[in-house]
Structure formats: C-alpha cells, structure tokens
Predict the 3D structure of the following.
Amino acid sequence: MTGPRAVVLDGPGRHRIVPAEPVAPGPGEALVRVHAAGICGSDREVHAGTRPEGYVRYPVTPGHEWSGTVEAVGPGVPADLAGRKVVGEGFRNCQVCDRCHAGETTLCGAPYEETGFTQPGAMADTLTLPARLLHVLDDDADLRSAALLEPAACVAAALLMAPAAPGDRVAVVGTGTLGMLAVQFLAAVSPAELLVVGTRRDREELAASFGATMYRTTAELPGPQSTDFGDFDLVVEAAGSPGAARTGAGLLRRGGRLALTGIPEAGSAQGLDPTDLVVRQLTVHTVFGAPPAAWAHTVRAFGAGVLDPAPLITHELPLEDFAGALGLLAGRDPKVGKVLLRP
C-alpha cells in the first residue's frame, strides 16, 4: 500500500491496514508526523478483547506510546511549535472538573477518553491531537528512544507520589519496560541499595547497567507465608502479574511505601493482605496513566540524560507488520524487549 496508512482494529482479533490521509488540525490542535510507536501489554489487550469494559472503543487505531515531529498547527496554537520534536499525553481530560483543576488529569470526572484506546492512536503515519497534550523535546533528542517516554511517565507518576530520598533502600519488582525505567529513575537519587526482583536471570546484567546494586529472582525470596519481612523503605511494583504486589509488600520495612504501577488480572487471589497493610502500617500508592507533572518530569530527565530507554528496544518493524509485532510479545522470548512500529 502506498500513501499514508493506519492500523485499525475493528474488534477483538480483527485488524486492517487502511489508507489514512492526515487530519488537518482544528483550533487548538496539532498534526504530528509519527516517528515510532511502541507496543505494550495494553495494546495486546485491545487486540485480544480483554481490556476492561469502557476502556476501549472499536474501531480504533491503537498506539499510546509514541514520538514524532509536529507538521502543522491549528488556530490558537503557537506557530513555532511546527517542526519541533514531541511526545504526548494520552488522556483526553475535560480540564474543568475538580480533579483536572488539581492537576490530577488521569482522575478526570468526564467519561474516559485516551489516545489509542477510544481516540485514534499513533500506529499510523500521522496523528492529530490537542496541542495542549504535547511535550516538546530538545532539538537533538533521539525520537527512537523518546517513544518510550509514555511508560516512563507512568513510573514518574508513581515516584512523584512516593519519592525516594538519597540513602533510602529501594527495590523494583518486575524487569520489563516499566521496571527497568524505574531502576533508572531510582538510581538517579543515590539510594543506599537498589534491589531488582525478576522471574529469571536474563535481565540481571541490564539491571546492573542501569544502576541496580542487587538482583534476586522471586524463587530466592521468602515464600508468601513467611513472616521474615524485608527492610526496604520503598518498593516499586512494575510487573502487573498475580502476586507481584504481595511480593513487593513482603520486601518492605514496617511503615514502608509500596507504589503499584502494574495492572494485574481482575480478581487476582494473590493480592495484598489488608491485615498486613494495617499491622505493619504500609502505605500503598497506585497509578493509572500519567498527569502533566509526571510527563514534564520525565521529559526533563530524558533531556538531562537521566533516562536512557534505548537499550530496552530490541525490535523495530514496519507499520504493516502489526501482527508480527504482537506475535513477538506473545511469544515471551526473553530476548524480546520493547517492540516499536515505524511508519
């Protein structure tokens, strides 16, 4: 197929590559030429039809992790935004409810709308969206790496709620994209110890290169019935697997803090124990997406070199090979990290 294209999911398990002419930006909007779009577990849920009801609307062009360059702007948008490298928030918040006024845009009281789930996403040659959602990158920014700033912003949202201080003992449960980005953020604050917990040893070397001081597999930790709790000040759970939150809680000292960034299957029987939370006075923070402050923090960290997502990218495929990209993730090969689609 020649000319502009887009991936369209008509429903679970049904996708097409269709012609898609750029949508001219209206008032307050910008037209972005997409450089790269990442695929994550949420995109697999949309394809499989397992995303929770109300959090997807078919037909839809997926793609909520992306980077690109502004090609044109609509009325009311500064003209000098054209030509700039950008990333963008996904949540289409209302801007007028109490939560939006408080800056908590991911808790917007209006019906859920998000790029790539209910609004057209970035698995296309171009993307038109409200310019207020864009975050401008440095002119020399690597757009390939920048495609991972959306998951990084979700981690930043957790760490802004539960910040680590220099000298803290911190841990990360999960060695996927979220977990490895969390390691980079945490290493930047000079913790006394930075433990990474994974299911296999294959990510140990990468974790160490990002600043981890210790690596353990889940099999090397005390069992779920153990009362031999850890002494970590902060644990970031980034696995989203059944039991990961409980594993993280088990690493905490009394009065410690747990930040949950992964989304486990609904009704998981291996979740947190309320009695344990109360008796040990643990504080639990959760995130779903990233508000503007977390995005701004992430873009600054990326520009300063604190974040280097490039080593997490293992595969780059053309837009037409959407099915192949999904297949790479579904195969669970430890050699497959972040997969990008390149329009």
